[in-house]
Amino acid sequence: MDGVWQITETFTIKVFDDIKPVFKVMKGTEEVLSISETDMPTAANSSSWKTVTIEAGEELTFIDMTTVGEPDKRTWTFNGGKVETSGNETINVPYFSLGTFKAGSITLNEVILIQLQKVKLQN
User: Fold this and answer.
1) Which residues, at least 6 apart from 115, have a Cβ–Cβ distance to it below 8 Å?
2) How far apart are CA 57 and CA 93, in angstroms?
3) pTM reported for the whole predicted model
4) Comparing C-alpha atoms, which of 15, 14, 26 is closest to residue 52?
């Protein structure tokens, strides 16, 4: 077997930080809630959650602004609103029923990128 073989292998791995959700809730043009990377509410601290008051028929706009962790998919889940779930970055949710609701939750996912390249050169 004459000639020189050169095998080059390149592995690219993109490592992400943990996802840290950031979002805000708008009532018309008024920002009524803003959640940063450091103050994500949990079920354990639900007694301290802010209450947003709206009239039946009004809507709230939920806006995902998450960048840390580079999420590539989101799922909003809503309680009490006309929209039950959404994968959109921004979603308008009208509320028609009277009552007090825990508005919902956001779940974010990320895909880990691994690129493999193998090149074989022969003289």
Assistant:
1) 10, 11, 12
2) 10
3) 0.71
4) 26
41 with 35: CB under 8 angstroms?
yes
Q: How far apart are CA 121 and CA 115, in angstroms?
A: 20
Question: What is the rounded distance in angstroms from the CA atom of residue 113 to the CA atom of residue 53?
Answer: 42
Q: Looking at this protein, which amino acid is placed at residue 97?
A: S
Q: Could you report the per-residue pLDDT of 106-120, keeping only the tens digit for each? A: 777 765 555 555 454
**Quick check: 7 and 119 in contact, CB under 8 A?**
yes
d(CA 70, CA 52): 29
Q: How far apart are CA 49 and CA 20, in angstroms?
A: 18
Radius of gyration of the chain (CA): 23
Structure tokens that stand for 10 in this block: 């390149």
pLDDT tens-place string over residues 84-103: 888 899 999 998 888 887 77
DSSP 8-state code for residue 18: P
